[in-house]
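Technical annex B. To support the medicinal chemistry partners, we prepared a structural model of the target in complex with zinc ion, based solely on the information shown next.
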Amino acid sequence: MSSYRTHSKSGLPIMYLQDHKQALWEKFSEEYPNGMRRTAFMTRLQGSRFVYQDNLGGLCSECNECGYESFASINTIIDTHVEDEFSKEELTQKLNSLRRYMRREYIKDLKITSSGTPAHKSCICHCLSHSFGICNLQHFEICNGCVELFHFFDLIKNHVDGELHELLDDYLKKLISWLGHHARKFYLNTHVQVNLDELDEDGAVIIVDYKMRILPHTARETKSQFFGKR
Ligand SMILES: [Zn+2]
Ligand SMILES: [Zn+2]
Ligand SMILES: [Zn+2]
């Protein structure tokens, strides 16, 4: 994610806060009981050079394109092409919980060992080891959360014209890439932490902003992938 921005007034880099200001204050005052006072601390954090992480949406082009834009387009399809009010409501609701799942819940079940090696999970969409192509264990299931992604597209296809199916397959593909993006982010973030934990007085951690690609593996092919094979 390229989030390098500078504060226009001071020209200094924007700092992203890891937590709410109150939580940061509590942590700070615990660690430095004789440090600066609360008011001074809060005043320092004020101003646009410090941005809470939650406001990061839109900075990452992958999240913007695969996440936000796809969801917006699918919403438009529901609005304009699904006639039955009940189904419209149901699809909108399912789409919202799908987005919540993908943004917040999905990464909670990813696993990396304490030494930073990607670990196996029985849900194929959650097996980081499989996404690196190094898993030789069986994946018997897709977990309840991940399977909703495929269920949603099956469901919406029942309600819209066949002409739109190919377009919907494209969105499914984008959302799968978005899951991959979250997995990648999780993997990289964990690695930074592992490296920091191993840091000794003579070492340094250098973070290079480059694009790493883990190709997504899925248990099911979309229709266009299937027909594209011939
Ligand atoms: Zn992103
Ligand atoms: Zn596996
Ligand atoms: Zn899963």
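Notes passed to the chemistry partners:
The longest helix spans residues 165-198.
Residues 61-224 form one domain.
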